[in-house]
Amino acid sequence: MMDATLETLVEKVRACQKACNMCFDACLKEDHMMAECIRSDRECADMCGIVLDFSQRESKLFPDLVAVCARACGMCADECEKHDHDHCQECAKACRACEEACNAYVAAHN
Amino acid sequence: MMDATLETLVEKVRACQKACNMCFDACLKEDHMMAECIRSDRECADMCGIVLDFSQRESKLFPDLVAVCARACGMCADECEKHDHDHCQECAKACRACEEACNAYVAAHN
Amino acid sequence: MMDATLETLVEKVRACQKACNMCFDACLKEDHMMAECIRSDRECADMCGIVLDFSQRESKLFPDLVAVCARACGMCADECEKHDHDHCQECAKACRACEEACNAYVAAHN
Amino acid sequence: MMDATLETLVEKVRACQKACNMCFDACLKEDHMMAECIRSDRECADMCGIVLDFSQRESKLFPDLVAVCARACGMCADECEKHDHDHCQECAKACRACEEACNAYVAAHN
């Protein structure tokens, strides 16, 4: 049931959701305002959550959602890469890995 | 803040989410198995839920999610239209209206 | 199907979800860090979202979720009331009204 | 950051969400109507989803949500245990393990 791109995808989406939620909390404690990072962490975590849920169902919408998730991850990675905080750098990596897994899944299922 | 297509969209998405959730419950009580209807009701309700949430945030992903929602609504309407039950016919109408509002929003924001 | 406490509840939850999401975005633009407000806005909006979804299903868990939502609204109102920004004051009002509607629903269904 | 009960909890919740979503799909394909199983699979999967999301944030509401999740898991296990299908038996096991992990977490954090 689980092909290789889906297995990788699920693993990367999980790591990405967690990194985004943790970066969200950590950004709220920084001295300087991290508005765009906070916003994109939340969006990306929400997209990961719905992708994980739909990955467990036989949904025809799944590839469409994965494509939106790729965009959310890309935007969150772009933002996190601007900041030196460890949590931002880790989140950027998780987002970039998730973006690649999403794109690989979409490419393999078109 | 609310332009006309967004206002219509939100109204239609709300009605669609509710109709899908009610059709879901009602389908579970039918004598004959309504598998595809139950599945598409759930998916469409879930997509409406995330669209409503993102409609209240300043999200760059919103048009992408609205486009996926349009597809979910279209598939759910196609399925519900096959069945004579009142709840299916009402759900089909709510889904079709939501699909149109989604498509109008996407067209107006490209 | 809709009794009076449920009807009021749904209306207040909708208004509260929207106020929380808007206060979230607005807080991100303030000069000073509004960390606790941002965090509680997100939590409260998420709880409202799941309550709205479950309000449309025949769920035995619904009163339990409404009780958690009451707590989320109370905590978000406590936080928003500390800040003079219009969006915080409006959010506090929406949260307090939602908290009351949640408590009224729980009291009427025990 | 992750204590032992939380680590176990997250693992069990993930397995439970997946089992519920898979049982949901499988039930839709059974000859006989599996209405209550389908309904409780959906509810339990939804509760697991929000618990996973909140487990990654510093949320004061987390124990309350875990308590509701325990109830969702218990009800879903009760229902699935009635059916001989492999997917129902597996889902019942995942739900029961998740219920226990939820209760252990709540007991350890009161």
SSE blueprint:
Four copies of one chain form a homotetramer.
Chain A: H1 4-27, H2 35-55, H3 62-80, H4 86-108
Helix pairs in contact in A: 1-2, 1-4, 2-3, 3-4
What does this protein look like?
Four copies of one chain form a homotetramer. The first copy, chain A, has one domain (4-108): Up-down Bundle (Substrate Binding Domain Of Dnak, Chain:A, Domain 2), CATH 1.20.1270.360. Chain A contains four helices and no strands. The first copy, chain A, has helices spanning 4-27, 35-55, 62-80, 86-108. The longest helix of chain A is centred in the first third of the chain and has 24 residues, at 4-27. The radius of gyration of chain A is 14 Å and the shape is elongated. The mean pLDDT of chain A is 90. The A-B interface holds A 39, 43, 46-47, 50, 53-54, 57-61, 64-65, 67-68, 71-72, 75 and B 39, 43, 46-47, 50, 53-54, 57-61, 64-65, 67-68, 71-72, 75.
The stretches of 5 or more residues of chain A where confidence is low (pLDDT under 50) are none
N-to-C span of chain A: 18 Å
Number of strands of chain A: 0
CATH domain fold name of chain A: Substrate Binding Domain Of Dnak, Chain:A, Domain 2
Number of domains of chain A: 1
**Quaternary structure classification:** homotetramer
Q: Mean pLDDT of chain A, as a whole number?
A: 90
